[in-house]
Structure prediction request, 341 residues.
Amino acid sequence: MSDADGFHECVLVAGGAGFIGASLCRRLLRDGHAVICMDNFLTGDRENVAQLLDNPRFTLIGHDVIEPIGFGLRPTQIYNLACPASPRHYQADPIHTLRSCVDGAYNLLELARHSGARILQASTSEVYGDPSVNPQPEAYRGNVNMVGPRSCYDEGKRCAETLFADYGKCRQVKVKIARIFNTYGPYMSQQDGRLVSNLIVQALTDRNLTIYGDGSQTRSLCYVDDLVEGLIRLMGSGDELDGPVNLGNPDEATVLDIAKAVRRLTGTRASFEFRPLPVDDPLQRCPDITRARTLLGWQPRVDRDAGLRRTVEYFAERLRRVRPNSAPSGIAPAGYKASLG
Ligand code: NAD
Prediction:
């Protein structure tokens, strides 16, 4: 299954041009596999994978997973990441989001059944809704509103998990389910309104940092390289590993603390701007990763400051490329470059 064995997979990454997909495609190519990236570019960006197009082991296919997928493709592994992940994007067309979750899962599971591929579902901590248990273990069934503004995503992902579990039981497809908690890092979209990208881009462009609510709600942030390692380990795990596995960083912090860290790392003097908390915004989010630790030997390695620093560096470079003659004043504060590792 790895370089060491001399055996390489043909891996389909649905949603491969998005934030997590871009890092996953790179890692799979580095590990020697052939990668087919399938995306409808709804929230992903061709730019995220443009550098990979020269690699003969990389193929990019434009396709919306709500449409049937031809069985001409013969992947040996499939990662299903194809769904917008930020509320701003998944609420823009809730019906398409729900269909991406459910019809997308169905079409990819059918492809897995025909090709004999193992298939991993990128599920989410949002299946727990606004939890009454913290941290959330996989056994927690969740507290989800089925008719709220986030329901297309939360319920879509819950239904996709059910489809995966039933294809495992009734169609003998080898399925894995990762419940991903807040992840951040390079290739995040600049405009998706997610906490980390929002704060960093605001800081680098010397705008006030927006905080929803009073900032006391918590988030647990996982750096994308750690997450990708967890996804690969889960995909490679034996058939005896059944059921969903939480992947996230249990290092819980308040939104205000995360904002303060961004302010320190960028050197911005911008102030905080408090706005009302969006409807159904979870107040607490922290994974219980006992299963990932014991069954996959996995835990996050990149600490919050190191991950935020790498993400600041990525966005600073990106903003420089977009606006070469007007480098934002927040980009290179005194001492900032020296601290980059
Ligand atoms: P993203 O929006 O950056 O990436 C999603 C990718 O899927 C994009 O490239 C988009 O164009 C593509 N896509 C969307 N709908 C599609 C469709 N119908 N057909 C084909 N392609 C489609 O999001 P991300 O942060 O990279 O998330 C990837 C996956 O991980 C998602 O399924 C998301 O639900 C899950 N997840 C992410 C996080 C996180 O913190 N980033 C947390 C939990 C779960």
